Amino acid sequence: MSTQTIRHPRYYEDHLALAAASTGPAWLNDLRAAGWERFNEIGFPTARRGNERWKYTAVAPIARVNFAYPFLTTESAENTEIDFGFSTVSALSAFNGDEDKIRQNLGSLAPLDDDGFTALNTAFLRDVAIVRVPDNSDAPVAVCVNHRGLSDMDGEQRYARHPRTLILAGRNANLTVVETYTGPAGPRYFTNAVTEIVVCEGAQVDHYRLLNESPGAYHVGTTRVRQERDSSFSSASFALGTALARNDFAVKLDGPGAFCSLNGLYYTGQGQHIDNLISIDHAQPHCTSRLNYKGILDGDSRAVFGGEVMVRRNAQKSDAQQSDKNLLLSEDAEVDSKPSLMIYADDVQCSHGATAGQIDAQTLFYLRSRGLDLETASRMLVQAFAREIVDAVKPETLRNYLESLFDRSIAVKSLPVAFV
After folding, report:
1. Average pLDDT rounded to a whole number, residues 43-64
2. Distance CA 348, CA 136 (A)
3. What integer is the mean pLDDT of 307-322?
4. Are 355 and 324 within 8 A, CB to CB?
5. What is the 3-state secondary structure (H, E, C) of the chain?
6. Which end of the chain is more exposed for a tag (fewer CB within 10 A), N or C?
7. Measured between alpha carbons, how far is 95 from 354 in angstroms, rounded to an integer?
8. What is the pLDDT of residues 84-136, one digit of tens each?
9. What is the 3-state secondary structure (H, E, C) of 212-225?
10. Residue 224 above 70 pLDDT?
11. pLDDT of residue 184
């Protein structure tokens, strides 16, 4: 796709003028202005040769629509919050609380040079969901950050939202946080989300991200994490297919002894597309990382996985493993997987692997020989494939919800002809 097929971003300008009228300190207005200036320079990314980050995902369906900017009250938003028994955080003013701490971190991990989507999110930065746990907190903290989709208010207009989340886990803090992105089934809207997470020395963060928006929605999610010495960050991303979804997740292990575990499970159905770009940067020695993603594809859907682990020159004694496994329920489904290791140190343990295949014929035959019909046997195998990721979820309420959600969503009704 050539750059000429991407519409010039100036059509956002009228909505930007309204967003810029939001109250706030001068530094925040400057940040917004810098975001717009950068977006106006680079526009949307294109799936052209040489742009490996977007090689398999074209964003023209997003770029060509003149999405309106919704100025809605909380009551006007679609009420689709999910109760996991956690404290709930929604749109909090970015200026309340410790402004110096917010100013120091907001925009520090997701710079404007990342790509046009990050710059556009910053340009429309109005409210931020802020989760902050102070140093040496006595008790674990559990928080759910709900980003709710918007109803099609006039039946014609399509809306874009640009949610921002800032998570600050102080030294030796213990935090569990769930990000949810939900929306109504009907309208075709666009969510452009950015999340920044700082995990200070000795802190432990369990992070869960649930994407369950409209089947016709567009979603681009950017998550940036920085870890300090001896910190632990475990994340699991769950996604049910939207029309087009992007999960750009990057972690920097920036202190010796840091540990991260990134897991993911997604399902795509007819005509849907999901792109997972996951990167881990071993910037300091004695760090450990685990990357494990699984995809289930049906219909003529398509998935993209780009897993990148970098071990820098001074990051000796690094231990990194990554895995990408995909289950194809249809002969028309397609996955492009590109795991990679970039190792510049010589005393490391690193491995990677990727697989894509259909339901195992012998296992299916065994189950059917025990009296199970084709659909029941197939569903059992699909559930077993997904269970590794779901079972690793620690909060029981969330784990049960995810298990039920995926069981309902994955319709095993047809198999490749060879297995029927």
Report:
1. 83
2. 32
3. 96
4. yes
5. CCHHHCCCHHHHHHHHHHHCCCCCCHHHHHHHHHHHHHHHHHCCCCCCCCCHHHCCCCCHHHHCCCCECCCCCHHHCCCCCCCCCCEEECCECCCCCCHHHHHHHCCCCCCCCCCHHHHHHHHCCCCEEEEEECCCCCCCEEEEEEEECCCCCCCCCCEEECCEEEEEECCCCEEEEEEEEECCCCCCCEEEEEEEEEECCCCEEEEEEEEECCCCCEEEEEEEEEECCCCEEEEEEEEECCCEEEEEEEEEECCCCCEEEEEEEEEECCCCEEEEEEEEEECCCCCEEEEEEEEEECCCCEEEEEEEEEECCCCCCEEEEEEEEEEECCCCCEEEEEEEEEECCCCEEEEEEEEEECCCHHHHHHHHHCCCCHHHHHHHHHHHHHHHHHHCCCCHHHHHHHHHHHHHHCCCCCCCHHHC
6. C
7. 44
8. 777 777 554 445 567 888 889 999 999 898 789 999 999 988 778 889 899 99
9. ECCCCCEEEEEEEE
10. yes
11. 76
Q: What is the distance, to the nearest Å, from the Cα of residue 212 to the centroid of all Cα atoms in its chain?
A: 11
Q: For 296, what's the count of Cα atoms within 13 Å in the CB-facing half-sphere?
A: 24
What's the one-letter identity of residue 332?
A: D
pLDDT band for 420, please (50, 70, 90 cuts). very low
pTM of the model: 0.91
Q: Answer yes or no: is pLDDT of 148 > 90.
A: no
